TrEMBL record:
Domain of life: Eukaryota
Gene: DED1_1
Span of domain Helicase C-terminal: 129-214
Pfam families named in the record: DEAD, Helicase_C
InterPro entries: DEAD/DEAH_box_helicase_dom, Helicase_ATP-bd, Helicase_C-like, P-loop_NTPase, RNA-helicase_DEAD-box_CS
Keywords, sorted A to Z: ATP-binding, Helicase, Hydrolase, Nucleotide-binding
The protein, known as: RNA helicase
GO molecular function: ATP binding; hydrolase activity; nucleic acid binding; RNA helicase activity
SUPFAM superfamilies given in the database record: P-loop containing nucleoside triphosphate hydrolases
Domain Helicase ATP-binding: 1-102
Amino acid sequence: GAEIRLQLRELERGCDLLVGTPGRLTDLIERYRVSLSQVNCLIFDEADRMLDMGFEPQIRRIVEQEDMPTSRQGRQSTMFSATFPREIQQLARDFLNDYVFLTVGRVGSTHSSIRQVLRYVEDTDKYRDLRRLLEDQSEEGLTLIFVETKRRADELEHILCRDRYPATSIHGDRTQAEREEALRDFKMGARPILVATDVAARGLDISHVNHVIN
């Protein structure tokens, strides 16, 4: 999502480590600004989410149809995924050579320190119950609220701010600078309530988040 001209200038200096999304990397390859011929370590982070977002064609093109060395030619490959569905197993068989499967904790379980609560709420009562949850929080900390759409993220941020709850939001229509500013305000506690779409918030690593509301 960042300005591509700035990234092109940085790439011209050369790099040993390149972090990118499948879409942007494919774009750079098509512009003949990136070669993968010297890649000896390939890492997929959140592989299941990339498949959910429809990136499998770009991933397969990058790995199988460009000049990247294969695993049999010495490339080391690592794949991180919160789940291990059939599609991820197929990717592992295609991209990894005689791979080792490691799990952290129990697959599909949550950490023992996390308490999960399920509430049945009518649509018309959701905001009232959300305010009650925010007001009942006894400890200080950050609150992350997930919503389904970008429009809903903007609406909920506006309503919360109107009612004097310090909130901000991130979603796919925000510029990179706007997303970074929102995350900075959230992490520092200037706006301790973050409304986010699931896609925009993937991969966030933020300390002191006490409540996650879906």
